[in-house]
Amino acid sequence: MRKILTLFLVLAAAQVASAHDPRTVAKDFSHTLAVEGAGKLTLSYKSLHWNEPTYNSAKKNEQLRQRLIAGVWKKIGKLDTDFDVVIGGKQVAKGSYDLGISFGANDDFALLLRSGSTDLTIPFQTAADGAEVTYLSFDIRPTSDTDSFVLEGRSGKFRCTAELKVPYLAPHDHK
């Protein structure tokens, strides 16, 4: 009887999961910065759906926030880079990293990178002045400096940025 009940519950859960509205399921995105002579930096991620009530609840409840970050936001994609970069003032060695996001009670967002025993938390500069964005999106844009870019993440009303520097592209003398 216990096996039949377990099978029924598994089938019911599968049916509910397959009936989920595909318009609210995270889509997969990828952005690549190619640097001639150095390689590529690729940011791949799940574009999570913004949920204002859940976010507001998590801001007020440390335990809920930590569960949400650990269960959902800690690993939403990958950062793969063929060259060293500096993001938000923190050195990121070339390699492959799990990519995630964290946030605190004061709308303080950070980029999470993890590779083996290396854990990096890179604080974002955050503004809450934008139009609401329904799905998480990232962008990498050039600046006026040859070695600097802007990494921007947007979700809900938040716009989060960090400087991304490519030391390989830094001004240098040619022989």
Brief rundown of the structure:
Helix content is 22%, strand content 46%. The chain is of the alpha+beta class and 175 residues long.
Structure, explained:
By secondary structure, this protein is an alpha+beta fold. The chain has one domain (about 25-170). The protein has three helices and twelve strands. The chain has helices at about 1-20, 50-60, 60-75; strands at about 25-35, 40-45, 75-80, 85, 90, 95-105, 110-115, 120-125, 125, 135-140, 150-155, 160-165. The protein has a six-stranded antiparallel sheet, with helices on one face. A hairpin with a 5-residue loop joins β6 (about 95-105) and β7 (about 110-115). α2 packs across α3. The longest helix has 17 residues, at about 1-20. The protein is globular and about 60 Å long. About 20% of the residues are buried. Mean pLDDT is about 85; it is low at about 5-20.
- Distinct helical segment count: 3
Order of strands, main sheet, comes to: 1-2-3-6-7-8
Shape: globular
Rg, Å, rounded: 19 Å
